[in-house]
Amino acid sequence: MGKKPELSISQVVNMSFGFLGIQMGFALQNGNASRILQTFGADVEHLSLFWLAAPITGMVVQPIIGHYSDRTWTRMGRRRPYILVGALLTTLTLFLMPNAALFTALLPPLWIGAGLLMFMDASINVTMEPFRALIGDNLPSAQRSLGFSVQTFLIGVGAVVGSLLPYILTNYLGVAGTAEKGHVPTNVIYSFYAGGLVLSLSVLWSVIKTKEYSPSELKSFTEETVETVDNTAAFGLTTIVKDIKAMPAVMKKLGWVQFFSWFALFMMWVYTTPAIAESVFYLKAGNRQNLYMEAANWVGVLFGIYNGVSALYALFIPTIAKRYGRSKTHAFGLIVGGLSLISLFLIKDATLLILPMVGIGIAWGSILAMPYAILSDHLPPTKMGVYMGLFNFFITLPQIVCGFFGGMIIKFIFQSQSIYGLLLAGIFMFLAAFFVPKSKQ
């Protein structure tokens, strides 16, 4: 019996390096999926319904992948086979999604685009969940804030590149940023190609450079104090049901935090482009279609800024959490995010929109790191994967709720004015901060 050895910074970075590519693809999806779907004919009040693909697939896929990766052992390990397969499928979808119009002989391009969005989300979830579990598998408790912060930093870097790529291609390399009605701009298409290439290469790096502990080695580590759960249940999906019933108390409390914060994030991702177009860019003279594309490109820049801030903030999270505790650190980030989202409702100048992106970046960095750091100390080592997957329920459920009701809220309560969706998102961030539970560290 012994303790897990601490890993070097380079080992921690190598273990999570694939997140750079995953988040680059995720950022391209977040920044451009609404644009692509509207290009193919989706109405603004229906956008949240199409975005349901992400949470529904995540709710189904992540617990299953976590459950089976807990029990898989191959020559590659138990997490890495799933990471590699998910990355290859995500890369394929990144190549296909902006070209959905090419498949119109089979189905309308809108349905092709929506289907590819769902397949991309399923593939990203297959890739992402084992990366989360690796931190719990390979790092001792004292290093987990560091581990999840490194992931957050790499997520931020990948997201900055993915968010800014369409803007850079158009403004610095001369690639067309607008297109005829019904066609995706060339800068978006090329960005998705680049995202697929970076994703596959970065994940391959992590797979090659990371060593996994065998099941017998994991059982020999006794440093962690965890709540008792039933590890003797029969193999299969029935075990997942029993795991849900035996869910640690801290995980249930964090569920409320995740619900409100991810509801807010979903509203932001879906409605920022039409909201900024309506409240800022349509105030200028010019062709409405071109102004919308200009707004969409600027939102990509704004998303790149908040992701860049989250990457920088991640470098300081371990120090802040060590001094003030993980709970206070997370509550602070959520409050700052709430204030920033509300300020988007008030600002009418495109350049000034950069300021709230700083606060949103702080919140995003905290959301990506602190809940997992708080939770990981309360999970049994032999069920790290399944509980990290089940924790995704508290991320996907609010997105599903928002997907079904967000469009109706925008249409019937806010009279199709998307900017009020961002105001509501800010209020929900404050609610998330209120529910943050106390943690041991």
Rg estimate, integer Å? 21 Å
Number of helical stretches of at least 4 residues: 17
The assigned structural class equals mainly alpha
Report the major sheet: none
The tally of strands reads 0
N→C terminal distance:
24 Å
Low-confidence stretches: 224-235
Helix share, percent: over 70%
The share of residues in extended strands comes to under 5%
Question: What distinguishing features does this structure have?
Answer:
mainly alpha; 441 residues
Kindly describe this structure:
With 441 residues, the protein is mostly helical. 73% of the residues lie in helices and 0% in strands. It has 17 helices and no strands. It has helices spanning 9-16, 18-39, 47-50, 53-70, 80-96, 109-138, 144-171, 186-209, 215-219, 237-245, 249-279, 288-324, 326-346, 354-376, 384-391, 393-413, 419-434.
Q: Mind sketching the topology for me?
A:
Blueprint: H1 9-16, H2 18-39, H3 47-50, H4 53-70, H5 80-96, H6 109-138, H7 144-171, H8 186-209, H9 215-219, H10 237-245, H11 249-279, H12 288-324, H13 326-346, H14 354-376, H15 384-391, H16 393-413, H17 419-434
Helix pairs in contact: 1-8, 2-6, 2-7, 2-8, 2-11, 2-12, 4-6, 4-15, 4-16, 5-6, 5-8, 6-15, 7-8, 7-12, 7-14, 11-12, 11-14, 11-16, 11-17, 12-13, 12-14, 13-14, 13-17
In short:
The chain is 73% helix and 0% strand. By secondary structure, it is mainly α.
